[in-house]
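We emphasize that the prediction below concerns an isolated chain of 325 residues; any contacts that depend on oligomerization or on bound cofactors are therefore not represented. The input was used exactly as deposited, without trimming of termini.
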Amino acid sequence: MKPGRRRALRFLAGGGLLAAAPLSAVAGTSAARVTPPEEARAVVVDVDACDGCGACVAACRTTRSVHTPVPRQPVPRSLWSWGQAGDWSSRRDVVWRLTPYNWLYIQKCSLVWQGRRRAVYLPRRCFHCLNPQCVSLCPTGALRQERSGAVHASPNICLGAGRCPRACPWYFPKMQAGVGPYLHLAPRLLGSGMSFKCDFCRERLRDGGIPACVEACPRKAQHFGPWGEMARLADRLAAERGGEVFGKQENGGTCLFYVSSVPFRHIEAALLSQKGVGPGMPSLRPAGVSMEDENSLTRLLIGAPLFGAGLAALRLWRDRRRERA
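Result of the prediction step, given as a token string:
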């Protein structure tokens, strides 16, 4: 989806008209290939080369530690049970799944392929889709996409509405309660925290650097560069091994490509059988399959403009009170 179309969708959402739009336009179930901007960057993960050492995870946690959320205690309880984000502040050391404090983890499984047993390791983090539904459906505009492809949440706007995890085909964004601007508005009525996920090390990219996870990999299993170059590299590696590429076409294209000599459907089957898929442990299914059903997306589309309207009304009420004070 072009940036102009995304702005148009957000405008429709603000006016309450998006609920009437065709579901295929935003669901990602049959997303058309998106042409990336010239500045877009991408990462190629050589699954065959990754040995699961965890250096990328450690580098990510060290680099992002300045963004570690420190929630207000006790965490305000939302009046809406469905909107209550979890508190991970006492589980900051969890590294075996995605959390608000752990934006990258190693997903692993064991399987038999071509007559021999082998271990498969997948560094998992946000794909940074070229057409991110989380950005299009964020009711406050907190989620943003840079020309590099980096998708990130603005800490000054995010209210923890919880739309982004449900909009994401792989449920990458994770919510942390008790942090963010909602605490200064109406903690029990509005929002419940903030959204956290990989932001593609966007500050490093702005300074001409590369993502910390790529830089830290001792096996050189991760490659970083312009989107077109990385797409060609992924295709070449896959062709040399008779393998596959995941991420280049999914959901219209992403900024993270996995290359593996083992078909991804077999990796997915092994992950499922070995309980490697679940909360905080994303599936490798194609985009769209992860959506529960069309009704869940319909509720999301209807809820986004209502949430936006409620936020606008609350801000107006707050501003008027300040004027009278």
